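cron nightly-structures :: item 1 of 1
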Amino acid sequence: PVLLWMTGDDTTDALTPDERLFLLEYLWTGGSAIITGQNIAEYSPSGDTLLARTFGLEYGGNVVPFFIKGTEGDVIGDGVSYSFGGGAANQSPPDRLRITGGGSAQSTETLFYKYLISDTTETAAVRILGENSRWTATFFAFGLEGGFCRRGVMSP
């Protein structure tokens, strides 16, 4: 079983300390989780146990992309394109992630923000493999409900 944790459009406290502790305990007992929501990285305390010390991630600012594209060859991201032009269309500027490598788990980019007029890309989602491969998680720095996702060729 995979736990789906969606914070929706919370604007200042996407994950409370109790929720962070619950997620960590769930993962540490061998669970798998998909964690998604608006401002989920932005309002995480600097150096917190979940994002920084376990996942090895930090908030890198807001972005204003039109597309999200999957990382080629990635088990989750390969062939995925995602547009903020559909879905709930309720996203405040999504969060940019930085993989620091400072966590106890291994994080790998699975989705990235793509801009129409440049080749600039920034991390939108990561796959996380826990210590000794005991648990897995996928962390999305935006609300999955906020757009339209499809597999195949990305087009404007």
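cron nightly-structures :: done
The two ends are 35 Å apart (CA to CA).
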